[in-house]
Design goal:
eight-stranded antiparallel sheet; 34% strand; DUF6689; signal; 5 helices
Length: 278
Amino acid sequence: MQTNIVRSLTAVATMCFTLVSTAKADVVLPQTLNYSDNAVTASIQVTDTIAVDLSIEFEKVVGLNPETLTISAEMLTPNALSITERLNSLLVSPTTAFPVVVSITPDPDSGFAFEGVATVELYTKAIHYTPDLPLRLFTSHADGTFTDMTTLVSAGSIRARGNTGKFSDFMIMLDTRTPANIVSDKVSDIESFLSLHGNLIQPVTLAAIEHSMTLLSFAVSDQDFDSALEEVDSLISLINAAPAGAMPDVWQASDTLVNVEGELKSKFSSLRYALRVM
């Protein structure tokens, strides 16, 4: 790939935004797309008054071009079944001001793939940031359950960021669970992930992760969140220092590979954020 080559795509229609009608709602395509070697930015005017900017950054990526990714946004009602049926808590809900799902859909036959984590950020002026408002960035893969992936929420009017090891749907939601429950749920999610995919990790590395996870679980159970944060930092360092080949670290558009490294890094980074903002 050539360095610092940016391709800008602009909608050829003279309309202020492009709509593709579907049975569920109107799917809106970006007005502007910018591609570089390892990043994508997009601006989407969802309605006359609601817009969202998307940015994606990769550690390593191949096949990144306008033909391999479809980026879109869909505005739904906050109580739409396509959202509520994918939530595992009544205390998590879409916002009335911004009930927008942003989707990143790679062409499964394109050869697109990335290594490690991808960082996804949504920015919108439709919501006004306040530090005590528990807005978080959620993701759902293949119409599955929405899970919190947040690593940053900041002003501007609101900017929400998180890491992922695969591509899916993304949505800013209101999360009124208690901080302790959020942390506990995240630990349970990591334990479930390791139960499903631990067999893909080399035994020595897996044993180290499982030992540290045991200490983390004890700390969270005892509500010793300072110790839990230290253990999460240790786990992130452990994964970063794992030898090459210790675990799968690639996700492909065909969705046939589990990006274990990328998913673990993403989950632990979001858990670290949750512990830091308690």
